[in-house]
Amino acid sequence: MAFSVPAAFDLLHRAWQGGRLAHAYLVTGPEGSGKRALASRLAWLVNGRPDPEPEEGAGLALPDVHTIGPESKSRLIRVEQTRELERTLQMRSSTGSRKVGLIADADRMNAAAANSFLKTLEEPPANSLLLLLTAHPEMLLDTILSRCIQVPLLPPPGNRLTGEESRLLDLLGHFFRRTTAPGLPEVFGLVREFTDLLAAGKNALQTEGEADLKKEEALYKQTTDGKWLASREAHFKAVGEARYLQLRAAMVDRLLQWWGDVLRLQHGAAHLDFPQERETTAALAGRLPTPEVLRRVEALEGLRENFNRNVQEALAIEVAFLKAFG
Questions:
Q1: Contact 4, 159 (CB under 8 A)
Q2: Same domain for 43 and 129?
Q3: 274 in helix, strand or coil?
Q4: What are 175-201's pLDDT values in tens digits?
Q5: Parallel, antiparallel, or unpaired for β 65-68 and 99-103?
Q6: Which of 61, 88, 269, 277 is deepest in the core (most CB within 10 A)?
């Protein structure tokens, strides 16, 4: 479940008041979701300052807040930075407040930096709070993910559907308008169309990554010896894979929102995630009993869990769609 910045801060504030604030949080969300704003408010809180609801990043200038992020031409976080952050956090606080170590764009840590920081997570400095911010949590080590409490943030208001997501809504609308009792042929047809959408999105991301790498090659071959290009190629490949996982997760979220609209209509709620599809979702709300809709939602929740467990993609989709749309 993703949160707005105020809702996330409220939960963290209550944890702080109850003495339950963890030593490490991973704040995730797309560009513009407010990751730095949340980190800023939390920094004010643990430093004993009244919460002024500062603007994006304003509170990060406090004396006991220490920030690192991507540097150098490679735009990576180097091991020297994570080691220096740990040394700083081991020192006595200048104000007696809790020390905050913040890593912006944490997914940009190179292998040595990630392994170095893992040791900091395993043995955190006394009276410290570690905050990692990233739009690509999939690129972090599993061992880092497991040692942080994740705080996912909602996309910024007015965030529009991607082309793939818009086409998915068209597919769902056409699927349910075409038949009221879909059988195996219809469901497997939807599976094929859904996987085709994923494949098209993956190819587009790959093409985009190749174009970005070529731009860097052209730029830096004029000014450097080019030895870093191999690492940049690996970086863009990893970014592409992470973005595909994000795309796939977003598509499953849209499927859940579709059935969420059906449930909302059954209970007279005014808000719909997809008001443009009201006619179709209203027809489903009137035709299917609530327990049946919940069963379909559970199937898609299971799909998301299977993706997180790296279950074979095609098989996971087939099984979930048979339950959710059959």
A1: no
A2: yes
A3: coil
A4: 988 877 888 899 999 999 999 999 998
A5: parallel
A6: 277
